[in-house]
Amino acid sequence: MSKIRDCIIKALVSVLSDVFKTSRETIEELFTTGKLKLTPTPDPRLGDYGIALHVLLRNYGKDTWSEIGLKICNQILETTSSECGVEKAEFINGYLNLTISHDRVLRDLTRRFLENEILKELGSVGCGKKVIVEHTSANPIHPLHVGSGRNSILGDVLARLLRKLGFDANTRFYVNDLGRQVATLIYGVQLAELANVRKPEYIKIDHWYGVIYALTNILIEIEKLRADLGIKAEQALEFSRKILEVLTTKSSKLGDLVEAISAIKEVLEKTRFVHNLPLILRKLYSVCRSHAKILLEDPDLNTLTNKLLDTLTKYRDTLTEYKKFLVAEKRLSTTYPDLYNSLRSTIKSHVEAENAIIELMRRAESGDVEVLSLIKKTTQNVLDGFKETLSKLDIVFEGFDFESSSEILELAKDIVREIAKTKYARLLDSGALEVDLNNAAQDHGYVRELFYPDQAGRFIIQRSDGTTLYVTRDIAYALYKFKVLGASEVYNVIAVEQEREQKQVKATLYILGYENEAKNLHHFMYEMVHLKGMRMSGRRGVYYTLDELLVDMEKCILKKLLRERGTAGYDLNIISKLAVANTRALLLTVEPNKVLSLDPAKLCEYEYGTISEYAYVRA
Questions:
Q1: b vs e for 369-385, b when ≥16 Cβ sit within 10 Å of the residue's Cβ?
Q2: What predicted TM-score, i.e. pTM, was given to this entire model?
């Protein structure tokens, strides 16, 4: 409708200039300054557009307004009827209301669409400017799940739309191969290879690495959580003993404490011969809660009781997490016993395992050829699995950019050196380098507005050991996309959870003098996918993958065909294409900034793709 509005304004300039005997320049100035403004009417009964003409009528007597209004209406209809589609003009108390012929607009729109005029106009918007759309960029540690699938579809559609608008859209996948998650996978791969454990032939490659990653994590976490439970249990019992000592000295004075003394003493006694510590601590928590009032009111017991209750609460939460990992361990150890046994026999201490993982990260960033070679081999295998999945959805990338590449690592070092020269750099006592964006926000309105209404905050850009962080390399990669890949604008399709980190990237670029790059770096945010009855966790190997979704979609279409057409012939290739259409449409159904809730049990109800295909064919 903006073209219609522009058409009407152009006509109004001519008509008002003639009726009020003033220059076109004067009328144009009134529109430019907003003293004359054509806007949608508040009520459709008044028409589609309205304009107040009082600024021009104020020099005329009210008794002449009707005559002036009639003249304006006649001339505007004469001028705009054929060109702008205005079918009715009314003048009421100094207001000119215009009604558009929607039938005519629709006919014109249809004609222009069929004659390819609209696509030609849209295709000229971008003028061939190069833009980069980074999407998916899932950590190469397990198969793509529906959450990363939503990212893939959104990014692919965004790139396609930009191309339709005449932009030279280039899609990139950023391979995060230097982080802790990849190092954890590499650690597990090393242990599996030492034990000569091989991938079963029937398993897709990225799914196999997902199992290695999950089992490695599970075994480390179980050891870590078990140690943590032991520490918390001992702390809880120690607080209990101290409380009992205080209670014993007060028992003669406070008769109400006798029951509490008895209950706590019973719990402590049972630790000697009842081998179910979680049960004992649960009883201890119950005792404390039931006697909380009297325990907390006593000044000698208040602090100890609060510490005990806090410790027991943390113990309970840790135990819940521990049980989840035990369930995951049982499931995967049953399915992959050889892999499980090889990892289980080696991972004895979570401290040793974590130190080994940290060492892998350090060696990778320092350019260790052996480690980088293993990382490249492993991540490439996982990426091959990704490509196989995404190719089914008709998604391809112009390029894959690796975090471990020498270009990005050198850029990251340059970023650190440049930041260190600014007044916003702070060297912490630990030796780490921090960027103070609060200070930067005071000097730069852009940084302040970027984070408003929140504080800009601070963040570490280099660890004390000299290694960089994910955000540091993200800043380097952003610059790489502009300076090396030649983008005029960049769109990062990244989950809403990383909103602050993306703002830190933009703010850092800005304070380093890359102002245009900061302003042309866009965070295309999207919300998570919520699965009914499942909380996805790569660390526990629990997810609903894109591969599964596609297979399940095919099954739904096949079931429907069998139900409606019996055993009549059907084309598996067409079924596969319809499954892709349904999958793509499903992941686009909800606005990106809203959570997509998905019930896998009701997957057959999601037929948006086939409905769209049917409508297109009928049209």
A1: eebbebbeebbebbbeb
A2: 0.82
